[in-house]
Every structure is written in C-alpha cells, then in structure tokens.
Amino acid sequence: MQVIEKLTYDVVVVGSGAGGMLSAIRAHDLGLRPIVIEKSDRYGGTSAVSGGAIWIPNNEELNGADSPEKALEYLKSCTEGAVPEAKLSRYVELSPTIPAYLKELGVEYYVHPQMTYPDYYPWKPGSAPRGRTMFVRPMADGTVLGDHFFQLRESYPEFKLFGRVTVDLSEGAQIAGKYPGWQKTLARVLFNYWSDLGWRRKTRRDRRLGIGNALIGGLRKAMADRDIPLRLNTGMTRIVRDGGRVTGIIADHDGQEVHIDASRGVILASGGFEQSSELRHRYLDQKTEPRWSATPRDNNRGDALLAALEIGADAEFLNEAWWAPTITVPSTNAPNTLRNIALFYERGFPHSLAVNRLGKRFTNEICSYHQFGQAMLRDNAATGANMPCWLIFDAEFRAKYPLGALLPGSVVPDRKLPPEWIDSFLYRSESLAGLASKIGLPKEDFLATVERFNGFAATGVDEEFDRGGNVYNQYFGDPSHGPNRVLGAVAKAPFYAVRLDLGDLGTKGGPKTDENANVLDKEGTVIPGLYAIGNAAGSVMGGAYPGAGATVGAAMTFGYIAATNAARVNSW
C-alpha cells in the first residue's frame, strides 16, 4: 500500500463519537494538538443516532437528592464486583463535571422537572427513583455547522415525528405517553418545521438538531471553532509501538496508507465490534447476528480491539453488549433494504405481551431493554426457544400506540401500510389461534398464556413477572389506562405479532483499562501512550446498564480523563 501522508500531532483520536470528540476538545484546551480520524464518510458514530442522554450521578440539577456515596453503592451493586472500585469511584467523582464542561462548549444538559428517568435497577441499594439521566437540549440551528452539517450522521427516522421532524427525548416522551400538554407540544414542533419555508425548499432534513445529533452537532461546532482537524474515510489499521510506548497509528484513507505520529498518546474511541460477524461469534456467549444490531451498519467492526490485542493489550467483558430487542422493518423509501429498530419503551404499552417460541412468557416485558435482552439469553439457554421471540398485541394496542417505525393505526391504518409488510414484518389474524399458526407457536400453550395474562390485566397485578411493579416500569405505559398503566388484556381482534431479535446498542468489551483510561497489558501494566474509552474499551459498567445514558456518559467522562492524563494535568 502506498504511503501518501506522514502527519504528526500530540494526540490521535480514533473515532468521532461523543467520547472521541470531547477528548480531542479537552486535549486542545489543555494545550495539545489533536486530530480525530473517522473510518466512515459521516461523523458522529453511534452517538449521533443515540438518544443523546447521559447518566451522571450526583449532578447539580438533582439539587442534593444524590450523593457520591449513594451513587457508588448503586454502581457496586450493579457491577457485582466485576469492575475495580477505583474505576467506579473515578466515574462517580469526575462525571458530574462533564455537564458544566459541555455547557462551556455550547452543549447544554438538563434534568426535566416532571419527566425524570428512573434508574434501571430501582430495587438495588443506592438507586435513584428520580434517576440520574440528563437530557441534551436541542441545537436550534444546525446550519451554523456550515459544510459540516450534511456530514453529520443523521438521527434514525423513528426518533423523529413522521420520520423527519426533530423532537428531543422529553418532547417525544410527552407526545408518545400523551402527558398533559402533549397536543400543544406536537403542534409547536410541527409548526416550527413546516414554517421554515426557505430551508424546506432546500432539504427535508430538519435544521433543528435533537437528541444524539444535538450532542454531536454541538461538539463538532466546538471542534471547528478550535480548528481541530477531523479526517473522514480514514480508518486505523495498526497501532505503532516503539520501545514499549505507543507513538502513533497507521491508517487507511481510500486504499492508501497514512502514518500519524502521536507524541502524547493515542485515544481509541472507535466503538465496539457488534458489526463483525466473526468477532460476535468468537466472543459472545450465544450466536447473534450483526444485522440485529441497532447501530450503524458496517461501522463498528472491532478495529481498536484487534489493533490493541496485536500489541499485547489485555481485554475484558468481550462477552457483553448493551442489549436491546430489535424488530426488522422493511424500508419504505429504499427498496430491498431492511433496518433493525430497537424497542426501548413500546413493550410497556398495555394490550401486549412477549412470548418465546413455546408460547410462554419469560420476563417482565417492560424491564429495561438491556434486562430484556439478558432475559432472552437466559431463556434461550434454558429452552432453546428464544432468539427470536415474539411481541404479541391486539387491535387496541395497534390503534393507540407506536411500535418502532410503525405509527399507531389511528394515524396509519393497516390499509395504508405497504402490502408486503403484512405477514412478513407485521403478522395479523382475526383469532389468537390463527396468529399462533402463522408464527409457529403451539396453540394450546399460547392460548393458555394469553388467558392467564388477561386475568392479571383485569386485576392490575402481574403475579408471574410483576409487570408495572416498580418505579421504572411506571415511567412507561399509558397514564389513562387502569388499573395498571402498563398492563392490558390482549383480547380485541385482529391480533398482531412482530418478531423480536436479540439486538444491541453496541458491544461492551474491549482493551482493559484502569481508572485513568490507560490500556493495560496482560500483566496489568500500563501501555504508555495508549488510552481506550467508550465501547472501544472494557466497560466501566461491566455487564450492567445502570440507567439511560450510561453509554455516552461514560464515554465522555473517560474521554475527558484520557485527554487530561495525556496532557499530564491531574485536576482531580
């Protein structure tokens, strides 16, 4: 391969997600010269298509309702001894400083006063009923990015109204849950979009950036203001180690080799390996497929992991992922294209239940998406009849509630759906027995499961899995439905089913790191000059998912730590 360039910087950041961008900005602000490289032709990575939330314990907006001691207790309980306490303590100590730093960069986070997001394990010691999740405020005008606007990886259509209108997490939750004032919110965001006539003539893409796009857009603006270079279509192929110390990387840019020296360090921030079939089958406990993942196709293939292992790095949590059930939806505007969409909250609407291929329930349907994925793994190991499983719902659910890219029937009735969706993506029958036949479930067991479930719905108490029995569960569902807002009978024809695969939001395993984001070798010794953060590192959360935003929050916190350590400035 021909060498076309030799470059020298203080810090090379591999990957342009939130953690990578923030680490580059922090390095610059400490007097270093960073560069960010990105393998894709779009920047932002998985962060750009995320909800943009961050899980920040003891943040200022909780107004004293949390404490470092309580947060550490919760993390220790969640991670069950798999993560060193020093690493957990560093996260608890440093993460509360991240929102203030982001605000200085023009990216503002807040805690919604009425719609706080509970921690995912409310029964564990130290959990916070109001949660520790912070939401990002929308970026009102993404066109301030100039030429960089259309290089930003766009949010997924299901995160927008009608596939195009930007909403932030609190707006989306208010509209989907029909909380007080939802009609006013809906009217406002629709008016703002359609009244922007000049921009509408140019593109259907909303100039207002929300959720992950707001975070990445704000960080890209901060990078541009600092003249930090971002090289697209440039993927790392090898880490250069000289005399024990990492001194740079070799990258591929459109088939030609680029050498980038790094005098102060290389920060690996290029995501996990969920898009590599080979690595998934090698490391994950049960067979799963890249196409089930909700992350951008072909992006995260374990480049950082493989390069780090090649120079002697240790690794951890390679069998873990940020699990989430996904549905496979045919694209309506790109023929012959399928997308896997994660179901984050839809499993909590009444008039639905999930069953394995034996026709039996296996978990509380509105546990967190990560816990639901773990339940799929456990059930499949025990029965061999999960992965896939099925979400079953009736006509009331279909009429009232969204399901991924499928809008409620009151908005888009079955007759307006693409004909090829019926009985391939969305299975439908006038009877439960007929539905069982279509999707291959044993009829008697399935009908008995639904009958028992409907009995629980009548009383409002799920005696099998306690659906709706904790504060996290009660965040979801339909507030107008009773006696249990997440529990309703599956009784009104027609009946529907969609297949649930074991998807993910990225893998959690990677090079083993210490509390300063230093990569360690197999003897537990720091590899000088090499750092790893986010899904390119072994997760600080171990096998757990403590709350919404734990992925992005940890990536940015340890990106900040890595850059600070590279600059030899210890502010803690």
Describe the secondary-structure layout.
Elements: E1 3-14, H1 18-29, E2 34-37, H2 45-48, E3 54-55, H3 68-79, H4 85-94, H5 98-105, E4 109-110, E5 133-136, E6 160-161, E7 165-166, H6 169-177, H7 182-194, H8 197-202, H9 211-225, E8 230-231, E9 234-242, E10 245-253, E11 256-268, H10 277-283, H11 303-310, E12 315-316, E13 321-330, E14 338-342, E15 352-355, H12 369-383, E16 389-393, H13 395-400, E17 427-429, H14 432-439, H15 443-459, E18 495-507, E19 510-511, E20 518-520, E21 526-532, H16 550-566
Parallel strand pairs: 1-2, 1-11, 2-8, 11-21
Antiparallel strand pairs: 3-5, 4-5, 6-7, 9-10, 10-11, 12-19, 13-14, 13-18, 15-16, 16-18, 17-18, 20-21
Helix pairs in contact: 1-9, 1-16, 3-4, 6-7, 14-15
Summarize the model shown:
The chain has 572 residues and is of the alpha+beta class.
Features of the shown structure:
572 residues, alpha+beta, Flavocytochrome C3, Chain A, domain 1, 8-stranded mixed sheet, 6-stranded antiparallel sheet, 16 helices, 21 strands, 29% helix, globular
Model regions low in confidence, pLDDT < 50 over at least 5 residues: none
Percent range for β-strand residues? 15-25%
| Main beta-sheet strand count, sense and barrel state | 8 strands, mixed
Just give the CATH class of one domain: Alpha Beta
Structure summary, number of beta strands: 21
CATH architecture of one domain: Alpha-Beta Complex
Question: End-to-end span in angstroms?
Answer: 44 Å
What would the principal axes of the Cα set say about the shape?
Answer: globular
- CATH topology label of one domain: Flavocytochrome C3, Chain A, domain 1
What class, by secondary structure content?
Answer: alpha+beta
Considering DSSP H and I runs of 4 or more, what fraction of the residues is helical? Answer: 25-40%
Q: Mean pLDDT, as a whole number?
A: 94
Identify the CATH homologous superfamily of one domain: Succinate dehydrogenase/fumarate reductase flavoprotein, catalytic domain
State the helix count. Answer: 16
* Radius of gyration based on Cα positions: 23 Å
